[in-house]
Amino acid sequence: MADVISTNRVEPGIAVVTVNSPPVNALTVQGWFDLAEAITAQGRDPECHVVVLRAEGRGFNAGVDIKEIQADSAYGALIGANHGCAAAFAAVYDCAVPVIAAVHGFCLGGGIGLVGNADVVVASDDATFGLPEVDRGALGAATHLARLVPQHLMRTLYYTASTVDAHQLHHHGSVYRVVPRAELDEAALAVARQIADKDTRVIRAAKQALNGIDPQPVHRSYRYEQGFTFELNLAGVSDAARQDFLDNGKGE
Fold first, then answer.
1. Percent with pLDDT over 70 in the chain
2. Residue 64 lies in a domain
3. Strand partners for 107
4. CA–CA separation, 137 vs 231, rounded Å?
5. What is the average pLDDT score of the chain?
6. Please, what is the end-to-end C-alpha distance for the chain in angstroms?
């Protein structure tokens, strides 16, 4: 069985981290921590100048594995998923080198956390982005959605659990390029080559500088959101919403 998270050095200085967790790339607790470790490890390697984060299968990412959470009545999986997501999102943001997200198909929930914290986003023309959290009785990643769209659109998408496509995000400037699905990997690598060709000492300093002037405290903001998810779980709201999602055949 193939690893859920794999890393390849496709060209000098370019690391490609791939998520492959069929059927929808919804990650388990361990999967989120493995993703965080893979991205962080590449940033620590002086031979790595840039990371491309991509996925196999039907879509980029469908968030957390709801079945795993629902199977644990003691909330250990829920706590683990929250910590795992926070670790993976932080790994993208804090990676010592730029991270390019190559997005295809659906990018939902935790996928927004990864993409919102990426340095560059390239998407295929079939890509859609959204947070279905309110329909699952949860909250989170509005912090990251707010990095992709303007404030009022973010709120509308959040309250309605609606999605936007790659062309809309390109209009807002958060997606750098939109290409046909078959050209996505090459489009991401084209940007990666431009970055990898530069002095990595300068690029690493630039990443630190850009994070240092970022007006959004992404780590604290996301953890604040997660506190409301815990409240909803304690009140029984989230458990009922997740079970309804699974009972209606949506949790593949």
1. 98
2. yes
3. 61, 129
4. 10
5. 94
6. 19
Q: For residue 148, what is the domain's CATH number?
A: 3.90.226.10
Both tokens of 104, joined, read 């295809």
Spatial strand order of the sheet with 128-130 comes to 106-108, 128-130, 163-165
The predicted structure's pLDDT at residue 201? 98
Number of domains in the chain: 1
Note the pTM of the prediction, 2 decimals. Answer: 0.95
For residue 68, how many other CB atoms are within 10 A of its CB?
18
User: For residue 249, what pLDDT is reported?
Assistant: 64
Token digits for 118? Answer: 């990426």
The pLDDT value given to residue 62 = 96
Region at 112 (left for phi over 0; alpha for psi -120 to 50; beta for the rest) = alpha
Domain that includes residue 240, residue range: 5-181+199-247
Q: Where are the alpha helices (DSSP H) in the chain?
A: 29-44, 66-70, 76-94, 110-116, 142-145, 151-160, 166-172, 184-196, 200-212, 218-234, 237-247
- Has residue 48 been placed in a domain? yes
Domain assignment present for 193:
no
Confirm if 178 and 167 have CB atoms less than 8 A apart: yes
- Give the closest residue to 138 by CA, choosing from 32, 4, 244, 22: 244
| Domain presence at residue 61 | yes
User: Using CA atoms, how far apart are residues 252 and 249, in angstroms rounded to an integer?
Assistant: 7
- What number of helices (H) and strands (E) belong to the chain? 11, 9
